[in-house]
């Protein structure tokens, strides 16, 4: 079947079997391999992208369902060399370890901040409920998203919380 | 992980979709695909034809029809959860929708889809049952309504026939003096993921006493079940803490509780009591 969609501002099209998952169309047809295939059972969220502005799991969507849709993948976050605030946040606050979950985390984080400019820690944690980090790096991921929220609000982000007080340690 | 090959129809009208279902007994309807696609990828289910009704116009609205809310087949969980009409008229359903899956799932999956899928541990099934919803099923030969009490048949089995589409769920609005609530223990702790056990309650207060109550459980057996014993014990009381505790103790009376990967029969029965009590308490608070 023929599908056409807009991906990161670019008109793309291709011929796919109905069973082709959107994530495979993105990775294999479009060669946009930033979007990851993780659990393949819609749990891990590594394949999270935006379809018509909403965060969805591209491993649980058929490419044919996305015909006519407007899609944004992790490659669509940065503006040239200028990192998106969530990418800068993950860089500055060590929001990634192995990096496998990162594309999905970034897309979920960006989606959250588009809807809620000042999320609480609780709201951030619920917003990434559909994204698993098997390095269990959630603490710094939350701090990274808080950093990005501050930047997007035009505020100075809070200093990193790993500054240790070594006073009294011999 | 690909599904087996299948034919795909992007229906542009309900009639086109219904005709395809009538012609293909092996076909399956899809809206968001949040339940169907994982099953197909695991090859637990391999329909020859997928009829995608995701583009059919006119099915994506929540209409306030006076005494009830009419929720169309394409209304997504996120929309049900954030709808002011649902939050005020059928709070248990809005709360259950807000606790369904995760953000990404709620952005794709639909309330009607979750009801039709009838997962044993789904959230909105219990809310629809407690609220006394009515399912509107349409086929190429006509339309019929099915009461929630008769809709949930067994594990992943509803009263829908293979050629029928759940085009709308009608949810009675809780009126003056009435309130509803839903809560659960999620499989990942807190309220995350499918319910290990959960309960929805609708309570009507009249002059300081409980005039009517309906409580439904999810996650404890093969289908959402009415906890008739809780309602029976609660009606006529003043809804005090002691009265709620006594009523909640009867949560699994007449309900088949089954052990699964997430809990023993005893644990699930205990959780049913805890969450029935909490849902009743929250529903009473919302009623006043």
How would you characterize the overall build of this protein?
The complex is a heterodimer of chains A (170) and B (288). By secondary structure, chain A is of the alpha+beta class. Chain A has helices at residues 22-29, 85-92, 102-115, 121-127, 138-152; strands at residues 2-7, 10-15, 48-51, 54-57, 70-72. Chain A has two domains: 2-76, Ubiquitin-like (UB roll) (Roll), CATH 3.10.20.30; 85-152, [2Fe-2S]-binding domain (DNA polymerase, domain 1). In chain A, 31% of the residues lie in helices and 14% in strands. In chain A, strands 2-1-5-3-4 form a five-stranded mixed sheet, with helices on both faces. The model of chain A has no long low-confidence stretch (mean pLDDT 96). In chain B, the strands form four sheets. In chain B, strands 4-5-10-6-7 form a five-stranded antiparallel sheet. A four-stranded antiparallel sheet of chain B has the order 11-12-13-14. The radius of gyration of chain B is 19 Å and the shape is globular. Chain B is an alpha+beta fold and 288 residues long. Chain A binds chain B through residues 1, 17-21, 40-42, 45, 48, 54-57, 59-62, 64-65, 67, 108, 111-112, 126-127, 129-130, and chain B through 1-8, 10, 33-34, 37-38, 40-42, 50, 52, 54, 78, 101-105, 107-108, 192.
